[in-house]
Amino acid sequence: MTGMAKKPDNAQKSACSPAKCQVEAVLPVDRRGQIVIPKEVRKRANIRDGDKLALVSWMNKDEICCLALIRTDNLSSEISGVMHSLLADKD
Predict the structure, then answer these.
(1) 70 belongs to a structural domain
(2) How far apart are CA 75 and CA 70, in angstroms?
(3) 69 found inside a domain
(4) Ramachandran angles phi, psi of 42, nearest 5°
(5) Residue 43 domain flag
(6) Does 60 fall in a domain?
(7) In this predicted model, what pLDDT tens digit does every residue of 32-80 receive, in sequence order?
(8) Which of 3, 14, 25, 30 gives a 20 to 30 Å CA spacing to 45?
(9) pTM of the model
(10) Domain range for residue 55?
(11) What is the pLDDT of residues 7-30, one digit of tens each?
(12) What does the DSSP assignment read for 1-70?
């Protein structure tokens, strides 16, 4: 189609594109602000004791509307892919 922006190659390869997102669990937050990632989700995501996760936020106006956890060893490639996907979806 004429005038449509082509999605960058890395956006098409991202495992974290919005089209691939799903709700894994609903997590209660305790008094100290802590959550527990369910064992089955940790197992499927290969999250182990000592692993580091980055908490990434999306802003809508002046409020955080979405949060995501991304393994720090995948951070730069996944954030880049997600951002390209989100920007391309707005076109």
Answers:
(1) yes
(2) 6
(3) yes
(4) -60, -40
(5) yes
(6) yes
(7) 999 999 999 999 999 999 999 989 898 999 999 999 898 888 777 666 6
(8) 30
(9) 0.60
(10) 35-91
(11) 445 444 556 666 778 899 999 999
(12) -TTPPPPPHHHHH-TT-GGG----------TTS-----HHHHHHTT--TT--EEEEEEEETTEEEEEEEE
